[in-house]
Design brief:
The chain has helices at 14-17, 32-44, 105-112, 134-141, 156-167, 187-196, 204-208, and strands at residues 5-10, 48-54, 96-98, 118-123, 145-151, 171-180, 200-202. The protein has 212 residues and is of the alpha/beta class. It has a single domain, classed as Isochorismatase-like (Rossmann fold). A seven-stranded parallel β-sheet has the order 3-4-2-1-5-6-7, with helices on both faces. Helix 5 links the parallel strand 5 (145-151) and strand 6 (171-180). The chain starts with a strand and ends with a helix.
Length: 212
């Protein structure tokens, strides 16, 4: 197992991915097979997987009855509801969920010590770094390479990339066939933006066909 590599999954949840979800991203279900292939590679090679999951309640800042679909959205990914669950092959390793409130350093250190790691940070905002445990977790892990996938590429994935770039201590890679967007920003423009910031772009096949 390579401890220096951390895979980062963004919001692969029913309400976003599946046509019957509360906030379905058109076409997002088409990436599930590629995400499953990538996850199987992660599980088989015992890489660590971390990521984010929306965990909403009525009254959260981004929730609106009259959403603009840019900064506000309909109610989705309700805490503990089926729509907040992850989709696809999630493997057999028990998931560890880190809440939106700060937990103790001792708790976080115990979680980070798991090998391989399978941990997800709850959030009620586009930006996972609004979870107060993220920066401390990254400092504990100190990955040299972070490989990012999930939805939506032009909202939560974009915030994740920006946050990890600002953290600034790892090489970032985005898996291009394992992301999908709302269309707020053209995918071509996102790719240019990321490459301009030093982010590598690869396909899932490029990852799974070689030993990293």
């Amino acid at each position: 197992m390579e401890k220096d590599v951390l895979f980062w999954e963004v919001d692969m949840q029913y309400d976003f991915i599946m046509p019957g979800g509360k906030l379905p991203i058109s076409g997002a279900e088409t990436i599930v097979s590629a995400v499953n292939r990538l996850r199987r590679y992660i599980f088989t090679n015992e890489y660590s997987l971390a990521g984010s999951m929306d965990c909403h309640k009525h009254g959260d800042e981004e929730i609106s009855d009259n959403p603009d679909f840019q900064k506000t959205f309909p109610f989705h990914c309700e805490t503990n509801a089926p729509g907040a669950g992850r989709v696809g092959d999630i493997g057999d390793e028990p998931e560890i969920f880190i809440p939106k409130n700060a937990i103790s350093d001792a708790e976080l250190e115990e979680i980070a010590a798991n090998e391989p790691l399978n941990v997800f940070f709850h959030k009620d905002h586009f930006d996972v770094f609004t979870n107060p445990n993220i920066t401390r977790f990254m400092e504990l892990m100190q990955p040299k390479q972070i490989i990012i996938f999930g939805v939506a590429s032009d909202v939560c994935v974009r915030f994740a990339v920006d946050g990890l770039l600002n953290w600034g201590k790892a090489e970032l890679t985005v898996v291009t066939d394992c992301i999908h967007g709302l269309g707020i920003v053209a995918e071509e423009d996102l790719f240019k933006e990321w490459e301009g910031s030093g982010v590598k772009l690869v396909t899932s096949e490029e990852i799974t066909s070689k030993v990293m």
